[in-house]
């Protein structure tokens, strides 16, 4: 009697094999689909990691511009550049948004050119030059370290015309600026006045500017000063700037005057940080731009105003006055106070 079971009888074996094969194929297709969906839904960082592994590369090697910048910052800039914090800020302001997650190998010359032009329009041509220089620094380092094969912005034209500044404070301007820096600060509860919370930072800024005027050292070196760099006791107080914080990579010993020593002792007592001029927002020192802005505000309040003065002009003023007194300010190769 023929079986009444639908899967038994002539051809039933083939039907089972077809069903099994179909089920297996469906599971395989489902697995492939799930894998594809996971890849589609993965974050940008996860996709990048999978692409590196698939290509046989080291997933830990920096490949996006953001990763390269951080590797350059930690592995090179913080050890070699006194102005690394300025470069970090410049990156956040102008390069992070367009390039942070871009694979470096996919960045084209026209991309950097577009950034250059946008920065020139919004922040000025000189800032545009600085941004292009920063991109080149990171890219050339990446090539040297075998993280990249070429720099797409190599020989890209800068559009800002750099002019050497010659601003030097007159004796009268020096007296007026010092008097303004030496004025006592007080809390002002009126709208826009100095609050109790802002008072320590304002005093620290004034001390930093005073030291720039007395010692003539670079802005970044001065505001990055730490307590362990100072030897204030004895007849020969000194400040030793370690090689990792100097422009030429050499240790620099700075003799301290009595006025400078007095200011430094006050700064040490006022600072709860290893830094003499600590930031209120980070664990490090105040940023260089904060000093420049504070100097501009003070110059604007002086009567008559002191026009067109930048932080580096204080260093140039010190060098000029030392030459007037017959003191050599050259290291044999160039003007030390340029």
Give a brief outline of the structure:
With 338 residues, the protein is mostly helical. Helices cover 54% and strands 3% of the residues. The chain has 12 helices and 3 strands.
Strand residue content: under 5%
What's the arrangement of strands in the largest beta sheet? 1-2-3
H and E string: HHHHHHHHHEEEHHH
Largest sheet: 3 strands, antiparallel
Give the second-level CATH assignment, the architecture of the domain at 171-324. Answer: Orthogonal Bundle
User: Which CATH first-tier class of the domain at 171-324 would you pick?
Assistant: Mainly Alpha
Helix content: 40-55%
Give the number of DSSP strands. 3
Instruction: Quickly give the structural class.
Output: mainly alpha
Multimerization state: single chain
Total number of helices: 12
Q: How far do the termini sit from each other?
A: 110 Å
Radius of gyration: 31 Å
Q: Low-confidence segments, ≥5 residues, pLDDT <50?
A: 1-14, 28-33, 38-45, 331-336
Given the C-alpha coordinates, what overall shape results?
globular
Mean pLDDT: 82
